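Protein Record: Sequence and Backbone Structure Tokens
======================================================

Structure line: whole-number tokens from a learned vocabulary of local backbone shapes, matched to residues.

Purpose: to set a sequence beside its fold so the mapping can be learned.

___
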Amino acid sequence: MGKKEWLEGFKKIYPVMISYVPLGLACGMLLYEAGIGLWGIFLMSLLVFAGAGQFMAASMLSAGATMPSIVIMTFFLNLRHLLMSSSIAPFFKKRSVPFLMLFSHTLADEAYAINYNQFQTDKEWRPEEALSANLLAYSSWVGSTVVGGYIGSSFSMNTVIMNYVLIAMFTCMLVNQFVSKIFVLVGILSGVLAVILMVILHHNISLVIAAVLASFIGYLLDEQREKKRTVEGDAIQDE
């Protein structure tokens, strides 16, 4: 990629880079407070690159959760990336496997939204510009979390307030998913199941089980709704 690709990518992604700074600082401080050193924070951001997942990991570590439960929860939390990468894949035909691997690794929700919109509206937007946008946002997040970890290691700060930042972020993510009655039902059902299973099992795996069960029920309801629409459409055509 040349200077042109980096410049075009920067023009589109710089608002995301700026927004990553306060979140990255908060995440780095929380991870350090949870017991992860600066190198650990750096490697986690570099190899995992999952903002919500890293916030969740910090919270779960502070609560004494086991590593397997953190890994499983992170997996399900980021499972949406499978759908995102699949929907944007047609724009990356004839690109090498290393290119696709690097793009996939650096793909985040915000970068996906910008890139997908650019591919849809700008005929001159190419995979190279998309990758540069990804990498710029990626570097902003990695750098911000490391700086946040350094601040947490150098100054004694009360990080209790950041727990509310985490709750607010996940609440916002949840509310943004309420686009239909089924999504609202799944959200409520997952919350109720999580509470019931936590009381029964007394383990963080309850959250995973609740999420899977609620998602499966939502899938069945959505399939039933689509079949009903198909039948009604066929009936209208017959008339």
Notes: The chain has a mean pLDDT of 82. The chain has eleven helices and no strands.
